[in-house]
Design goal:
Layout lengths: L2 H8 L3 E7 L3 E7 L5 E9 L4 H11 L2 E8 L9 H16 L4 E5 L3 H11 L4 H4 L2 H19 L5 E4 L2 E4 L6
Parallel strand pairs: 1-4, 3-6, 4-5
Antiparallel strand pairs: 1-2, 2-3, 6-7
């Protein structure tokens, strides 16, 4: 799909983003107008992950999914890439929603930087689940930004536009 087709498809839909990890899965969510993107939740990556995501899809009236994917310049496939491909196939088996892939390169580093910049206490910054949720929000923010929007990320009481924080 082109960016114009994607923008048309996602118009007016809430989107759930997924930062897939071998241990944890971070989730981000946005409003139907794609103005506000928020870290949503995290899941332990286990046999119930897909079921929980489907429950979120139903409960939150999700219209599309964005799955973070570590695109590489050298095009070599990694263990994580294989796991993400398998995860995507499992999701496709249980939902009719469109699943878009978004480059997740450096989102964990960006999430850590963002936590520091907004003054998150050191103890909370050590909590990897918080970083995973924020990384998922960054993935979604970048996806909606690529689709001709510029949403803000809301983390706690802080509201950050993508062009206002330094990585």
């Amino acid at each position: 799909m082109t960016n114009i087709e994607i923008a048309s498809y996602i118009k007016g839909k809430r989107i759930l983003s997924i930062d897939f990890g071998l241990k944890r899965i971070g989730l981000g969510i946005c409003d139907p107008m794609h103005i506000v993107v928020s870290p949503f939740n995290y899941l332990m990556n286990d046999e119930n992950s897909i079921i929980k995501i489907i429950e979120y899809i139903k409960y939150e009236s999700i219209g599309a999914l964005v799955l973070g994917y570590p695109f590489r310049l050298d095009e070599q496939e990694t263990e994580v890439m294989k796991a993400i491909d398998d995860f995507k196939l499992k999701l496709q088996e249980v939902t009719d929603l469109e699943i878009f892939l978004q480059d997740e390169s450096y989102t964990s580093v960006s999430a850590k930087s963002l936590q520091f910049q907004i003054g998150t206490k050191k103890k909370k910054r050590r909590d990897k689940s918080e970083k995973d949720k924020i990384a998922a929000a960054i993935i979604l923010q970048e996806f909606t930004f690529d689709s001709d929007k510029c949403p803000v990320i809301v983390v706690g009481a802080a509201v950050i536009r993508v062009d206002h924080f330094i990585l």
